[in-house]
Design a protein that fits this description.
heterodimer; A: about 120 residues; B: about 240 residues; globular
């Protein structure tokens, strides 16, 4: 029974959350959001993994009788990565705009972002 | 709320969230023992049924093609939002900034490297149904080729090649192509995005039928989306660096 990879993804996720909560810089928050998203990749790939499984690509191996890892979670991860980059770009744009208006990236100093 | 209370509150709630997540995940099969009925089903079906050797690509562009369209539109929306937000308030034109890398050797090698990266990108897109790769991965590599021009040659050349007027229609073209292929399937009386061409010989570059076209159009859309994002950030950077 091994649950370490699942626990690792929880750990990465909580680390990212800690970064978001304690951050003093909007760019740092964007990176922390990416860290949270990375936790989901680790979880998805860990769920689909099989002992002694090979990649689900059959160009140079027989199509049957092989142990393969789950292709569905891999495809979810793949599209997720591209989308996460797009989201990061959008968040960075917001950070740029906030800096233009308030001349600061610290959420504690920006009146409109005080929580 | 001050920083200390916030972190204390966070520690409390994070412990709760972490415990709940761990509790939930402990119900999963042990790592490496996944039973995965759907994964096995698709991996066993994709090669004989669709003549697609890469089961991951088969899921992305065929079995789950409709969802992938949604994810492409997320990328499209994000890139458009970045462009709208940044361009609206940029005060100066950056078209005449040169920002040359002062080394002829670096320039020449970068030019070759950009061509090499472009070729690799096309290769990754084209072989997406056979080997690891496909529209998403290849599209990112294609967009990176233009960045090599900026890094090793000069901003002006980059701006000429990937100028907004040229780079921007690329993404809608790709995303529109993706949706268009789905509509062609509908028009032929099939399901949305269902393969409407011959599936070819297994293991050949042309196998997979119209799924290959879907992969190509998503490659174009991803490359275009990333070009728009890179372009906006680079222009912003140039306008700030040259104090205009």
């Amino acid at each position: 029974m091994t649950y370490l990879p699942y626990a690792l993804s929880v750990w990465i996720f909580v680390c990212g959350l800690y970064g978001i909560v304690s951050s003093r810089n909007l760019i740092h928050i964007t990176v922390c959001v990416s860290v949270c998203q990375s936790a989901t990749y680790v979880l998805l790939l860990a769920i689909g993994y099989r002992k002694h499984g090979t990649a689900p690509i059959f160009s140079d191996m027989p199509t049957r009788g092989r142990t393969i890892v789950d292709p569905i979670v891999q495809s979810l991860t793949l599209t997720d990565i591209v989308v996460s980059v797009a989201v990061a770009a959008l968040l960075l744009t917001f950070a740029l705009k906030v800096f233009e208006h308030h001349h600061s990236l610290d959420p504690g100093e920006i009146a409109g972002l005080k929580g | 709320m001050n920083r200390r209370t916030r972190i204390a509150l966070f520690a409390l709630s994070a412990a709760g969230v972490g415990a709940l997540l761990l509790w939930g995940l402990a119900g999963l099969p042990s790592f490496g023992d996944y039973a995965g009925p759907y994964g096995d089903l698709i991996a066993n079906l994709a090669p004989p049924q669709r003549h697609i050797a890469n089961a991951v690509t088969a899921v992305v562009f065929d079995y789950r093609g409709f969802d992938t369209m949604g994810e492409e539109l997320i990328l499209f929306g994000a890139a458009s939002a970045v462009a709208m937000l940044l361009r609206e308030t940029r005060e100066h034109d950056v078209a005449d900034i040169v920002d040359r890398v002062r080394s002829d050797a670096t320039n020449a090698i970068s030019l070759l490297a950009a061509l090499a990266v472009l070729t690799v990108g096309l290769d990754v897109v084209a072989h997406g149904l056979l080997t690891p790769g496909g529209g998403f991965q290849g599209g990112v590599v294609l967009a990176a080729a233009f960045l090599v021009l900026f890094l090793g040659v000069e901003f002006h050349v980059y701006n000429q090649v990937a100028a907004p007027t040229r780079g921007e229609p690329v993404e809608p073209f790709g995303a529109g192509g993706y949706i268009g292929l789905g509509l062609v399937s509908l028009g032929l009386g099939l399901s949305f995005l269902q393969n409407f061409m011959g599936i070819g010989t297994f293991g050949r570059l042309t196998s997979g039928g119209s799924v290959l076209l879907v992969s190509f159009s998503s490659g174009i859309a991803v490359a275009g989306g990333f070009m728009v994002i890179f372009n906006e950030f680079l222009q912003e950077n140039m306008a700030a660096r040259y104090g205009r």
